Amino acid sequence: MHAELKARGQRVARMRVARLMRQVCLRGRARRRFVRTTDSAHRHPGDRTAWERTFNPAPQGGGPGDGRENRPSIPLA
Asked: Is-contact 28 1, C-beta < 8 A?
């Protein structure tokens, strides 16, 4: 509102415009936020090596340095 009045050549303080708008229960509209969405139709294939990788998990027994050496030998209830 203030910018529009200023563009028309009227000199009005922003706080005066805000006060007058409050008196007549007018509110300015907030700008819409930019929403970033996923572009599922893009032409880039992505990381093909991630699909072709072979994952070899460690065995369940662990090994030296797996942190078990610091555990107490008696079970805690």
From this structure: yes
Mean pLDDT by 10 residues, the chain (77 residues): 86 89 88 79 70 70 64 64
CA–CA distance, 24 with 17 (Å, rounded to integer): 11
Q: Where are the domains of the chain?
A: 1-27
The DSSP annotation for 4-64 comes to HHHHTT----HHHHHHHHHHTT--PPPPPPP-----TT-S----HHHHH----PPPTT--T
Buried-state track 12-48, b at ≥16 Cβ within 10 A, e below 16: eeeeebeeeeeeeeeeeeeeeeeeeeeeeeeeeeeee
